[in-house]
Amino acid sequence: MPNLSPAAARALRRLIAPVLAGSCCAARAADTMDNAYWNMPKGVTQISHEVWWLHMFAFWICVVIGIGVFGVMFYSLFAHRRSRHPVPAQFHENTTVEIVWTIIPFLILIVMAVPAAGTLIKMYDTRDSDLTVRITGYQWKWQYEYVGQGVSFFSTLKADANAARQLGSGIDPATVPNYLHDVDRPLVLPVGKKVRFLLTSNDVIHGWWVPDLAIKKDAIPGYINEMWTKIDEPGTYRGQCTVLCGRDHGFMPIVVKALPEAEFEQWLAQEKSAAAAGTPPAAETPPAPAAAPSSSGSAPGAAADQPAAVDQPSHDP
Amino acid sequence: MAHTHADHAGHGHVHDEHAHGPERGIMRWIKTTNHKDLGTLYLWFSGIMFVIGGLMSLGIRLELFHPGLQYMDPETFNQLTTMHALVMIFGGVMPAFVGLANWQVPLMIGCSDLALPRVNNWGFWILPFAFTLLLSTFFLPGGAPAAGWTLYPPLVLQTGNSFPLLIFAIHLMGISSITGAINIIVTILNMRAPGMTLLKMPLFVWSWLITAYLLIAVMPVLAGAVTMLLTDKYFGTSFFNAGGGGDPVMFEHIFWFFGHPEVYIMILPAFGIISTIVPTFARKPLFGYASMVYAMASIAFLSFIVWAHHMFTVGIPLAGELFFMFSTMLISVPTGVKVFNWVATMWKGSMSFETPMLFAIAFIFLFTIGGFSGLMLALAPVDFQYHNTYFVVAHFHYVLVPGAVFAIMAAIYYWIPKWTGVMYNETLGKIHFWWSAIFINVIFFPQHFLGLAGMPRRIPDYAVQFTDFNEISSIGAFLFFIGQFIFIYNILRCALFRKGLKPAAARVWEGAHGLEWTVPSPAPYHTFEDPPQEVDTETPWVAGHPAVAH
Hints:
The complex is a heterodimer of chains A (317) and B (550).
Chain A: H1 6-20, H2 25-31, H3 46-79, H4 95-123, E1 131-138, E2 141-146, E3 151-155, H5 159-164, E4 187-190, E5 195-201, E6 206-210, E7 215-219, E8 225-229, E9 235-240, E10 253-259, H6 261-277
Parallel strand pairs in A: 1-5, 4-10
Antiparallel strand pairs in A: 1-2, 2-3, 5-8, 6-7, 9-10
Helix pairs in contact in A: 3-4
Chain B: H1 26-31, H2 35-63, H3 74-109, H4 117-136, H5 162-190, H6 203-234, H7 248-265, H8 268-282, H9 289-302, H10 318-330, H11 332-346, H12 355-378, H13 380-386, H14 390-420, H15 426-453, H16 467-495
Helix pairs in contact in B: 2-3, 2-4, 2-16, 3-5, 3-14, 4-5, 5-6, 6-7, 6-8, 6-9, 8-11, 8-12, 8-14, 9-11, 11-12, 12-14, 12-15, 14-15, 15-16
């Protein structure tokens, strides 16, 4: 809906959404509107395109099955109601029919399972990466560490959003750009390179998800999980923590800034020299970390004796 | 029939001429070992829990009405989501089904009571204590548990004073469920009327037989898991502490080994109810009785080998991921068989649309939509996008609310004339149905869009692009809740204020088959003290059994 201002588009959506919300057609009608609010994003990687395709494929299979089954059911509700069809048939059990409606779904499943397995196998192939980033979850922020590069930093909810999100802050979230989806320091990645992520956690289980990259994995204390991405287009991609991790679970966003390779190298060199000089680079200072991890009683005793796998952060903002 | 009429004074079914009628006053309910009394108690208890859990969900929806935090801090929000789930699952849905089993299983298989009546009393009376403990945590310093009903460590170990109460409450609920399940199995296997072989049992009885086995299999697993949490927190063990050589992922495996069969514990009895109601109002035998039994048994078996589909993102190896993806997809085959069977039962029937039938039809329609999203969720690579988003919230609420809860409502409308001896108000029942069917979709359908667009679950505040659908969902939630007062009024009239209501016939619904319709309405306090005679092909016990066709 390119011709409408965002405010007008929002007002329109608000007006018609309740009408559309109940039907499957809604999603289609909405396609002409801003798809991002209705459906999974296509994303910016080959994997995310495959995942989106699988999603739509499964969706349309469900729609077709639904039309078939519900079509028969609603026709029967209409045609075989008592006033039109006063004498009920008494048939029951038909082995042929029962075999057919067991086999056909099975075949449909195979049609869905084969491409899904193919994509899954690709997603699990973390070999031959160009860059490795270690992601560590903390209550409630992320640490990114460019393995072997000596660059490491924390990424925390942006200060303006942090102020607006306090109970009774009186600040309208709509006035905060990218409310809850913006950080003080984004994860910067190169376009066109295979980036491998190693995920772990320093305290409780977190989940790292960026919808446009179609990757999501849990960051678990004592574990190192692997996943990878290869971003096709430069841009800023946003997500947030997806595993309930305590009080501020809703307030640990993820922002990935994908740069063309040359710009990325430039950025990395800058970060490296800043790290070598011992000064925290790149202007912005994160807001003070949120208070004690748990408002309800004992501190997370786990933190002290937690995983050997996690190195100390090279600097703590 | 030993007793052909009942003289009902007060709010029970008092049998003046019978020496073993109920006591008067509160002690009747405390001491009762009567399956009908206990069924009633379970159902009232579940109703109260549905209201409490519903109020919690309104708190959640209130905070989510707009972005920003207006009414509660995030910790309180997390307490509400955690307790909403625990109360609805263990206090609402499960006791409601146990209550229905208490009332109906003896009536449907023609025995006088459950096999272990005193255990039955005990099983029920544990529950008020369990939930008093659980709900009292709201008033402790630090508040109620807030780590989600899934209780994942290490987060759950950060819980404060409410932690031991939570664990003890779960133990109590488990004991209650296990005793109830044992009781139902023993009753069904030993006390069926002469001639009622297993494959002549009504499907509701079948569904509960299978459910009870699932309960016995998995409730001890949950008990073990939470006990390990308890010792990890207080006795220095490291079952789930990576720093001490333990494994937080192991908890997830153990929890979901309980958790997935638990999902079917909450839906199999609903299958049984729908398989009972549809043939009655279609006036036609169930299309495939045997295949329905086999489908339920297959679902129960599969429920034990699919648990890790709740854990696709924890990083299990590729082979495991593929196995759990395929096994999960397989569940749609027996589930599909059930849906096709219900539709085939309607086909060329002679349908009327009383309230129980309306709820049953809505169940088939909306549960199937929940099944579709379940099939999509089974695809592991796509699940990475769905996992822990509102798409999942929409999915499991579709199978639990218009699924399990609509089935419970259908069952109550269907059998309450038998229980109370009066007909509920059909007009109000239909208003309640349409109100519920519309607003349940207003609540949960937009949540599919929210999840796909990227809104995670269990967050008290969200990015502003999610505002519209959250508003719609919240409005739907409040309207749905208000509509339930129609239901409460209708039930209260039948149960307590019967004046002016139409008396119910013994066979309340003309298309109904089964032994429960051979006793008067209301069902006398004691029924089937003498077992019913051999199967009678004129009034067959099993709707859908071949005998019906002759």
